[in-house]
Amino acid sequence: MEETISLKELFETIKKRILMIIAITVIAVGISALFSYLILTPIYQSSTQFLVTHSNSEQQAISQGDIRTNLELINTYNDIIKSPIILDKVSDELQLNRSTNVLNSQITVGTRNNSQVVSITVQDPEPALAVQIANTVASVFQREIVSIMNVDNVSILSEAKLPENPSPIKPNPMLNMAIAFVVGLMAAVGLAFLLEFLDNTIKTEKDIEKHLGLSVIGAIPTFEVDNQMVAKSENRRRNKRGEDIA
């Protein structure tokens, strides 16, 4: 016979282990807050943009073919920006004590579809250094691309600037705590149902009918013992015994 579980039994299981569920959820949120505020390093982001233009300034009209050529060059430029020939010079100018691979992982180069504007985004634990790296990468690339590709078609549109009150892009403590709350709650509820499923002890008449398939014809009621009444009865018994001995 297939066993079914009613909503009432589900709510009873949750109600019975509500303290455990709350405790696990609070612990999960607390651990997330601890990591977000005290352990994880804040990361700041800064961006600069440059424009890929036509290299021949004497030509006034730019054809569709010239724009298509510039768009195709952008993919090549993206690779050149993150290459050692650029990043090594950036590291030397800023006297960075980090490898080229580490610096490469901090830089993201991207552009929108069919756009000649390229963005250089840098992430770093120090907001001022993120600004310096972004601007230096753009300036070094603009200078070096002349000799690398024999073209001069890069113009800086906007430089990265340090805001008065920089805020990190990660970690996001509130988001992390919200995720921890949902995950902790789900795990706690799942654990509560697992413990209930593994608990095969018989506690009520319903358990007997459910697990043994027997009909309950009688039950012995339980009474709460009044300690004061027991003590008084014991005192009277002792006093009566003393009178009999006397």
Automatic annotation (TrEMBL):
Compartment annotation: Cell membrane
Coiled coil: none
Chief place of localization: membrane
GO molecular function: protein tyrosine kinase activity
Domain of life: Bacteria
GO CC list: plasma membrane
Domain spans labelled Tyrosine-protein kinase G-rich: 141-194
Transmembrane segments: 18-40, 174-198
Keywords noted in UniProt: Cell membrane, Membrane, Transmembrane, Transmembrane helix
Signal sequence annotation: none
Membrane topology: Multi-pass membrane protein
Domain Polysaccharide chain length determinant N-terminal, chain residue ranges per copy: 3-94
InterPro entries for this protein: Bact_polysacc_biosynth/exp, GNVR, LPS_length_determ_N
Keyword Iron: no
Family assignment from sequence similarity: Belongs to the CpsC/CapA family.
PANTHER family attached to this UniProt entry: FERRIC ENTEROBACTIN TRANSPORT PROTEIN FEPE, TYROSINE-PROTEIN KINASE
Name by which UniProt lists this protein: Capsular biosynthesis protein
